[in-house]
Amino acid sequence: MQLNIALLKGDGIGPEVLNQAIKCLKAVEETFNHQFKFTEAEVGAIAIANSGVPLTEKTITICKSSDAILFGAIGELEFDNNPDAKVRPEQALLKLRKELGLYANIRPVKVFADLVENSLLPKKIITGTDLVIYRELTGGIYFGKKSLSKDGTVASDLCEYSEEKITRIAHMAFKSAKRRKQKLTLVDKANVLETSRLWRKIVTEIAKSYPEVQLECLFIDNAIIQLTMNPSKFDVILTDNMFGDIITSLGSVIIGSVGLLPSASIGDKNAMFAPFHGSYPQATGKNIANPVASIFSAVLLLQHFNLHEEAIAVSRAIQKSFKKGITTTDILGSNKYGTNAVGDFIAANIVDSDENLSLNYENIGLGRSTII
């Protein structure tokens, strides 16, 4: 298969972790005889520094002409510490979602047996957790009209949803639940918000078209409690933009590190894959950032194009790194391996299922892995 992939490395640790995902895709390319063409484009603070805006028309054009987008991270402390900044790196994400029509954000949360001790929650609670969150990405309070009074003392953000925006992601989530464990949980605040009542009305009606899927509706506050107490009970979670943002943050607590969570942002014509974590500017250039979320995002990219054997090969290589303890310091407490070493190990272990290869693990960190 031939794929044109846009690379938006962004700021902070974005370039470092994305480089490891690229290594893995190049290993897939070689092992499975594919052709991947990579095109870099600026986004975030680096784009502001060079062009005055976080997302240029050139970058948008590159993204629209590509088959898929791999995204690193954006954000810099100078903007985080300046509440009066009119132009911010994060504005690029909202514009990308709007320009590319990326209305569905898909975030899997899976607890791996070798990392179960890494969670902040008790082992007996999180064991067996394997859920996926479908977050609507182009509506709600993040995209609603914003206002600030002339004296700066009163502000408002409009939360607005249409039947169309709810329906399209609801069908996507139900189809996923139908293929999985046939349970879907709608998370809203229908006891208070009119938009949530619309969500519940529409989703309940759509559920009639999927009789094999059990529908459960939970208020956001109860959902947070249930996710903390018994995350393994969930299968597919469907929710709006803001609630989805909140719930997915809890996923990092469940699995023990934000550096393990990938995401896919899908539209009718475009798709973008990115780690859930931010730019972590304090770690920039220190070779300590966990690249696994970025590499798992590459797995989602492969799955998106029905390259399932390739996706399995990368996933197995990642899980082998867990089993061997070749991880960054946020996983299993080891500081022996850095970002590049973990990426090298995973890339070197991406093999065809028919192959039976092993590695000289001690050479991984030295950049001279040897197949023996």
What do these coordinates show?
This protein is an alpha/beta fold. The protein is built from 13 helices and 12 strands. It has helices spanning about 15-30, 45-50, 55-65, 75-80, 90-100, 125, 165-180, 195-205, 220-230, 240-255, 290-305, 310-325, 340-350, and strands at about 1-10, 35-40, 70-75, 105-110, 130-135, 145-150, 155, 185-190, 215-220, 235-240, 260-265, 270-275. Strands 2-1-3-12-11-4-5-10-8-9 form a 10-stranded mixed β-sheet, sandwiched between helices. The protein has a two-stranded antiparallel ribbon with strand order 6-7. β8, α8 and β9 (about 215-220) form a beta-alpha-beta unit. α1 (about 15-30) packs parallel to α13 and α7 packs across α8 (about 195-205). The protein is globular. The relative contact order is 0.16. Residues about 355-370 have low confidence and may be disordered.
Helix percent reads 25-40%
- What is the straight-line distance between the termini? 30 Å
Low-confidence segments: 356-372
> Helical region count?
13
**How many strands?**
12
Secondary structure class reads: alpha/beta
**Biggest sheet strand line-up:** 2-1-3-12-11-4-5-10-8-9
The average pLDDT value, as a whole number, equals: 91
Task: Write down the Rg.
Answer: 21 Å
Largest sheet: 10 strands, mixed
Order of helices and strands: EHEHHEHHEHEEEHEHEHEHEEHHH
How much of the polypeptide forms β-strand, as a percent range?
15-25%
Rough outline = globular
